[in-house]
């Protein structure tokens, strides 16, 4: 009797295992690549938080693909903002079987990683990566959900001349794909307006002492200094400009407008001007609700680009849902043709994978806070 009971129990357990496997949700992996360690780790974590919030919101709706229940899962990888590491990270995500990737953060990592994703045939939706070169490689798997620097540099140049009335303009860039590319577009905009820069200086993305380049610029009596670089360097640059008693406005684009800049620059940041892709969060169509959800879930403020990571994740999943498949050959056509209403605004892509009709906002530090000055571009463009 005992033997029969055990055999019956084993058979029942075997049956449960088989039926349980058939009924279990299929997991669809979404990759996230960004700087999760190092000087830009706060940005990477912000992107990861935004993407994870999107995954959680989708899973709450009990999604299905091909008639089967699915669960989306985020797989995060740290690219350390290093192009060589980014290539290894991209290959690791591909080898893990991700259906698509949200990332990378900057242009320098996104460009080399794009080839890996293209060769694997999966989508890469960059939440930031504003350098136009990312989508100029001819890969039909590359997309971005914010405007690129050709537009941003042009708007920044026009604002510097027409609104700030700057006439003696110097340029510094960090020699990265992002910083140098942005500075080049800014100068191109100035040239189109008949304005020649008085000086151009170079640093690298690890420079902390700007004394030498600023001493050279001070001798040229610049009234505006444009910096192609990110907030962690812009803050000590702003501080040094004040310490040297220079009467020049510091201006940047794409990467300045963060709490980190304000905390590092402190009083020296007053009057700094920056142009950032996208709308202020309180002007985004879903911005206020997103900010509340983010703060409720993570108990911290949005650092910079979390809403764009959220939308990059949601638009990738929306394409899968429209195609009713997580297979790239099926969802990629849907992604290319998508019209999606996101937190940050309407998302649709041009033939290169760039966001159509991107908006840009000019901010200024006033009384220790970034305050929007004007919105450029957008649907009226």
From TrEMBL:
Highest taxon in the source lineage: Bacteria
Signal peptide: 1-24
Matching Pfam families: Peripla_BP_6
Family in the record: Belongs to the leucine-binding protein family.
Biological process terms in GO annotation: amino acid transport
Protein name: Branched-chain amino acid ABC transporter substrate-binding protein
Keywords for this protein: Amino-acid transport, Signal, Transport
Residue ranges constituting the Leucine-binding protein domain according to the UniProt record: 28-368
PANTHER family the record matches: AMINO ACID BINDING PROTEIN, LEU/ILE/VAL-BINDING ABC TRANSPORTER SUBUNIT
């Amino acid at each position: 009797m005992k033997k029969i009971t055990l055999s019956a129990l084993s058979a029942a357990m075997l049956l449960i295992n088989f039926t349980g496997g058939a009924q279990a949700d299929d997991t669809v992996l979404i990759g996230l690549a960004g700087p999760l360690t190092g000087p830009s780790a706060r940005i990477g974590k912000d992107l990861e938080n935004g993407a994870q919030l999107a995954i959680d919101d989708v899973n709450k709706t009990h999604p299905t693909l091909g008639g089967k229940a699915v669960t989306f899962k985020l797989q995060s990888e740290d690219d350390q903002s290093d192009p060589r590491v980014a290539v290894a990270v991209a290959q690791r995500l591909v080898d893990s079987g991700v259906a698509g990737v949200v990332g990378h953060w900057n242009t320098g990592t996104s460009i080399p990683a794009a080839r890996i994703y293209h060769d694997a045939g999966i989508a890469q939706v960059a939440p930031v990566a504003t350098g136009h070169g990312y989508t100029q490689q001819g890969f039909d798997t590359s997309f971005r959900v914010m405007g690129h620097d050709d537009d941003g540099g042009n708007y920044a140049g026009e604002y510097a001349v027409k609104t700030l009335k700057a006439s003696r303009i110097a340029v510094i860039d960090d020699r990265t794909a992002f910083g140098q590319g942005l500075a080049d577009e800014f100068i191109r905009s100035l040239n189109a307006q008949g304005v020649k820069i008085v000086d151009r200086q170079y640093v690298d993305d690890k420079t902390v002492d700007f004394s030498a380049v600023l001493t050279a610029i001070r001798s040229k009596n610049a009234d505006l200094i444009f910096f192609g670089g990110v907030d962690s360097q812009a803050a000590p640059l702003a501080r040094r400009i004040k310490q040297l008693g220079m009467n020049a406005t510091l201006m940047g684009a794409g990467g300045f407008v963060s709490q980190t800049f304000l905390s590092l620059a402190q009083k020296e940041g007053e009057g700094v001007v920056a142009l950032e892709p996208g709308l202020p969060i309180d002007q985004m169509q879903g911005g206020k609700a997103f900010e509340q959800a983010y703060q409720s879930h993570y108990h911290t403020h949005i650092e910079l680009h979390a809403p764009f990571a959220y939308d990059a994740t949601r638009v990738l999943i929306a394409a899968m849902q429209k195609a009713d498949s997580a297979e790239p050959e099926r969802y990629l056509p849907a992604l290319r043709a998508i019209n999606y209403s996101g937190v940050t605004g309407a998302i649709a892509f041009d033939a290169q994978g760039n966001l159509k009709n991107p908006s840009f906002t000019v901010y200024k530090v006033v009384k220790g806070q970034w305050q929007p000055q004007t919105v450029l571009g957008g649907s009226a463009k």
